[in-house]
Amino acid sequence: MLKNKREIGKEGEEVAADYLRKKGYTIITTNYQKQCGEIDIIAEINKTIVFIEVKYRKQNALVSAEESITHIKKQRLIKTARHYIREEGNKLGNKGFRFDVIALSGLGENQTLQHYENAFIVT
Questions:
Q1: Which of 76, 84, 93, 104 is most deeply buried (CB count within 10 A of its CB)?
Q2: Using one digit for the tens of pLDDT, what is the confidence trace for 48-81?
Q3: Quick one: three-class SS letters along 1-59?
């Protein structure tokens, strides 16, 4: 049975969350949505809040998963992250923040995962 984009995306986010847990991250929330955008995974490690975009591409796609994150997508992620920071306020304390990308390609046993820490800088 063929999966639709939403099912593949959800499956990819679950793979990414499992990977992060194994690496010692604590998953705070998934699919954080506001009018300005969505963040796939918000996690914490070593007193750093990590906003994670999960991108999936078919094997041999013309544009890689990491290359598919446009300037506009980055701006939406930043805006949504700022909203999260304002919303959580004092609960966050003196934690740092960063943006990561998890790029998945292929499905099943042939799936590859690349984790890009500090994938882009907020200015």
A1: 104
A2: 999 999 987 665 555 555 666 788 989 999 999 9
A3: CCCCHHHHHHHHHHHHHHHHHHCCCEEEEEEEEECCEEEEEEEEECCEEEEEEEEEECC
